[in-house]
Design a protein that fits this description.
Oligomer: homodimer
Number of helices of chain A: 14
Strand order of the largest sheet of chain A: 2-1-3-4-5-11
Structural class of chain A: alpha/beta
Largest interface: A-B, 47 and 45 residues
Strand content of chain A: 15-25%
Distance between the termini of chain A: 75 Å
Chain lengths: 338, 338
DNA sequence: AATCAGTTCCAAAACGTTTTGGGGGATAAT
DNA sequence: ATTATCCCCCAAAACGTTTTGGAACTGATT
């Protein structure tokens, strides 16, 4: 509650001197500086970031804008792990972090620019937004530097961080092909996600490379949801019993798919090999444990923050970064013997 | 970037009028109000919360201070789900949320009061802090209203939200006793956590109620960590092979315990019944799936925020809340047949 | 004695809002 | 014609900082 004025009064100096003393300027006598410092401590004084930001026109604050911060997110932990990465990087570099969460309802009440202007964030990291989201256009038009997570759009002030989705998917599907599977289906996420399109492309590339014809009936939309994936998998496997392998665009959907297969009386992985995408915690604990493509969500957040802060500090910088994925072999995939 | 001054100039009125028009005061002509509103929109104006907060001496901001925001947290999702609850409640009530994360290192650099003063948070929700944490004393001495999660301390400005840990533990252990188990051990968390002490008390109460003598050698410290729990369980079961049931103070430790038992060649739940605490996502997916005590972490955060905001608005309010837990029966527990 | 350089300090302006305490004009009441 | 009441508007102060552009002093150099 003590202000700089209180410190100045008690120290018998001017407000200016207190400010300069505390901020390490050289034009203040070491003796007075020490005196001011101890008095500041006595009074439990700490400068108001509000007032400072106002006059300096700098907040040293970045916003993590997440669309759809919901408890369901705890199943894949995407948001949480990105948040950890952002938080750690921001902390290291001395930036404050404000969490801004929106949904379609809120987006109509307040524009992206309003949100950012009000809180005077210097830059933004955007997570969870869909390609058809109204905010996305605004972001591109806005002056405020922004890093998108998993949406590869770039402009003067906008960059992105993503993983090698196509490559990851390709590895996954080639793994299945190498195990002798010929009828490999795919449970994809919704098409408003960039990653869905990329992973589909990877799936197709792998098939082509392995000389397996692409059949669009083998690709269904699981909407990134466990339940939808379960439902779609049941339909798929009923209609096309020749399918022996499944590539799922997310581990969560793989969980749903495996449950569907089990309910149909299939023994996993004997009757059906499944590979997922994400490497969420669950995938190591399920039965069978899930072979998957690992992507480093923490690093996604960390790198996004690194790029953003460099942008903010006016440095020349590559405005995008594509992280590598890693294939993790577990129990859910095995040789085809049909 | 447009300021209130820009709007005033363009509208040909004073700054005062713009402020009052936009804030819905009645002493401004509806026509001018409309004019100002459209001009504000044209200029993409939104008031700076910085400036507003400075003059109003109110920030409408609460801080979620979490100690140890680490990626390991994604295994139990405690922090994330509390965060979701806090975020939703704060959002509904028009409060901004800043995320403040500390660790023991940071706590030495900056005091709790400095942290709060700098950012001018009106109130704080504290999560993940230990009972021997230096911040805890500060919180009690501080003027700033604060709600503790899972630490039952109350004062003029401090309240808390927790779950019925003793009751939950008791239910869990009684469940095991009712299944005919006589030798029930406990894997507890570290003793700096209040919940550990409560859950231990519940364990003891249940034993007493069921006429089973308490043996302190049956209680080991798993430090809330999966690996430690695994290690301790191995030691425990080797030394006391008569044990047929385990109550674990967290699901994560139960995972470790189950793995230990499996590695020793035990078949679960036939040779060992296990009940956990928390109802984390994993517990539904493990094999066997885990019987557990469910606690609503989202609600923990939501209620904490409710109480905090009421405190901030000067309302008379019960400064603590104890949420009920629920027992969830799954596959990891069965009748004792030894 | 006058100039210069260096050291240590300070008054005032600025940042973008809200609030206070009125001012002026129009209309109605005396 | 004066007074009272509204209605609509505004100038200025305040919030707590940082920064700018000197001022006042002390020694040293001319």
């Amino acid at each position: 509650m003590a202000t700089i004025r209180d410190v100045a009064k008690k120290a018998g100096v001017s407000v200016t001197t207190v400010s300069r003393a505390l901020n390490g300027y050289s034009d203040v006598n070491e003796k007075t500086r020490e005196k001011i410092k101890t008095i500041a401590q006595e009074l439990n004084y700490s400068p108001s970031l509000l007032a400072r930001s106002l006059v300096m026109k700098k907040t040293k604050t970045i916003g993590l804008l997440v669309s759809g911060l919901r408890i369901e997110g705890s199943k894949d932990n995407f948001t949480f792990e990105v948040l950890c990465g952002v938080n750690d990087c921001a902390g290291e570099l001395g930036y404050e972090l404000v969490l801004i969460s929106t949904d379609s309802k809120k987006q109509q009440e307040k524009t992206y620019n309003q949100l950012c202007n009000e809180r005077k964030v210097e830059g933004v990291i955007l997570q969870g937004i869909k390609t058809d989201d109204p905010y996305l256009d605004e972001v591109l038009k806005s002056e405020i530097p922004c890093i998108l997570i998993d949406i590869p759009i770039e402009s003067e002030s906008v960059g992105y961080v993503t993983t090698d989705n196509k490559g990851g998917a390709q590895t996954a599907v080639e793994h299945l092909a190498d195990l002798g599977h010929k009828n490999i289906a795919m449970i994809n996420g919704h098409s408003q996600a960039f990653v869905s399109r990329e992973r589909l492309a990877g799936y197709q590339d792998a098939l082509q490379k392995k000389g397996i014809p692409f059949d669009e009936d083998y690709v269904v939309n699981g909407a990134f949801l466990e339940e939808t994936a379960e439902l779609e998998t049941t339909k798929l496997l009923t209609k096309y019993p020749e399918i022996t392998a499944l590539f799922c665009a997310s581990d969560l959907m793989a969980m749903g798919a495996m449950r569907a297969a089990k309910k149909m009386g299939k023994i996993l992985p004997r009757d059906l090999s499944v590979v997922g995408y994400d490497n969420i915690i669950l995938s190591a604990y399920s039965t069978p444990s899930l072979s998957t493509i690992a992507q480093d969500r923490y690093k996604l957040g960390f790198e996004a923050t690194t790029i953003l802060t460099q942008l903010l500090e006016g440095r020349e910088v590559e405005k995008n970064k594509v992280l590598q994925t890693a294939f993790i072999k577990r129990e859910s995939t095995m040789k085809n013997h049909k």
